[in-house]
Amino acid sequence: MKYDIFLSICQLEVDGYKPSEKTMFQNFFDQVELADELGFGTAWVAETHLSTQTQKENKKPVVPHFNGEIGLNTDILQLAHKVFARTQNIHMGSAIKNILCNGGPMAHAEAIRTFLSLHGLDKSERRRLNIGFASGRFEFSNRPYGVVPRNAVEEQAWPVVKGKILSQATEIFLRFLKGERFSSQQLKTLTLTEADFRKPEDWMSVVEVYGQDAEEVPLKNFYHFEKVGVIPFEAPLDLLDLTLGTHDAKIQKMANEILPVGVFNLSITPPEIIEATHERMQKEYHPDGGTWQRWMMPRTAMIFMDENPEKARQLATSAWENYWKAMEGTIDNEKVEKAVHNALVGSPKEVIEQIRSKYHPEDRLMLWFDFNNHDNRAVQNSMRMFMEKVLPQLEEGK
Questions:
Q1: Average of pLDDT values for 327-348?
Q2: pTM higher than 0.85, yes or no?
Q3: Are 252 and 263 in contact (CB under 8 A)?
Q4: Among the four 120, 143, 185, 289, which has the fewest Cβ within 10 Å?
């Protein structure tokens, strides 16, 4: 089993306290440097774009009750350079880079190739950059960049169309990362079919708006460009890993036709979906990446640990109550209980038992210690407790 750490840099008000941006970043560097010293494998960092607070001033805010910023990291590449300069062994990962905003997939591919060119100048460099990528959690981050319905059909089918846009963006992003030179005319064509929709009536409503009977409705390319090659052309890819943040099996398969790409799954993902994904990826994973391994699908695991198990449960319950109140404006006891159950909660001994019962011995965990917790010392104490009292027991099989 591989043990990574997830750092959110989430500036949410907790118990009336909201740290300054400077404090948030200082806490982050304290924690990532300690993670390096303790031996965590990869530091995965949340990435967010555009202000959560400012979007609350609009007519239809997505998270109207959230007091703060969902995340302060907007550029994993700048952050990675800084982290690598301050650490010795830890790798860096984005969880998750939005490839639709900030210039789109072409711009992100070029920025990453530039990063790799600089990062790889030192021939002794071994630390890896894992780019987890997707389309972003909130539409307010994408809409200012033109990711909006372009006609009545797309308006009617927008939830499905967004997936099609991610598919095309993924193709562009990976092909340019790979070093290909091509135009938008060489992209896979996009269509809507009944199989794309969960309900037959949703498909029929799209056909009605389209204005004629059809087994498939064509979509125009979302991206338009003449033949392009992104630079630097000689960027090395040997220190780059890729992980896709979508459950869409078609996009996962298409991505692996271009480059080796892993898959994200959350701790709340049903076990049957996780196992089905592993089985499918054994057949579809790009051969250049070797044989598919379970650790190629990182899984977030929130952790609330204390020598006193009751205190650990209180911490978990309080954190989730604050989170749901911020996200939805109410506290749903059922959601809180379910979330606490899915997390790793209790004494070190209980956490050991939970990891053994919930996860496969070859899984890869992204341990989340700072969820709704601005107590820098407490977060670091939990990190130490895990590495000193949990990990040794897991590795020895006791």
A1: 81
A2: yes
A3: yes
A4: 185
